[in-house]
Amino acid sequence: MSTPVGAKKPKPMTKKNLAHFEKRLLEERRRVMKELGHYDDVFGATPQSADGDLSAYSFHMADQGTDAMEREKAFLFASQEGRFLWHIDQALRRLYKSPETFGKCHGCGDDIAFERLDALPHARYCIKCKQKEEDAKK
């Protein structure tokens, strides 16, 4: 990508900022992995072991429905965390593979605001481009 004559060339992010975002991404990754570990415990539990009853007798239908709803809810949360983990891993790949472009908007190429990246270190778009994307979905 060539820079037009007279235009300022974008500056790469400082090493200090790159280290900060790497730390933030790794912290988020650890948190998500821990959360996914909790869901693994939920999915591995049998209905009998869930309430401490190890007998083979069936539960009341209402209990079975509640348990099914709780497992479904846990699955939904786990799948959301899984997608979040994928976004974090993609951001880490971008950071390691091409640190000079990390923090640049994938839409317009401008710098993503530090505050936005600090809040969402996996962000790929500046706030203006993200807003355009959200408006297009409506």
Query: Which residue ranges are poorly predicted, with pLDDT under 50 across at least 5 consecutive positions?
Result: 1-9
* CATH class membership: Mainly Alpha
Provide mean pLDDT, rounded.
79
Shape: elongated
Integer-rounded radius of gyration: 22 Å
CATH structural fold name: Four Helix Bundle (Hemerythrin (Met), subunit A)
How far apart, in Å, are the first and last alpha carbons?
32 Å
Q: Main β-sheet: number of strands, strand sense, barrel status?
A: none
**In sequence order, what are the helices and strands, one letter per element?**
HHHHH
The CATH superfamily name is DksA, coiled-coil domain
- Secondary-structure-based class equals mainly alpha
The portion of residues assigned to helices is 55-70%
User: If helices are DSSP runs of H or I spanning 4 or more residues, what is the number of helices?
Assistant: 5
According to DSSP, the number of beta strands is 0
Task: Identify the CATH architecture.
Answer: Up-down Bundle
Describe the structure in your own words.
This protein is mostly helical and 138 residues long. The chain has one domain (15-46, 59-137): DksA, coiled-coil domain (Four Helix Bundle (Hemerythrin (Met), subunit A), Up-down Bundle), CATH 1.20.120.910. 64% of the residues lie in helices and 0% in strands. It has 5 helices and no strands. The protein has helices at residues 15-44, 47-50, 61-97, 114-119, 127-137. Helix 1 packs antiparallel against helix 3 (61-97). It is elongated and about 65 Å long. The protein starts with 14 loop residues before the first helix and ends with a helix.
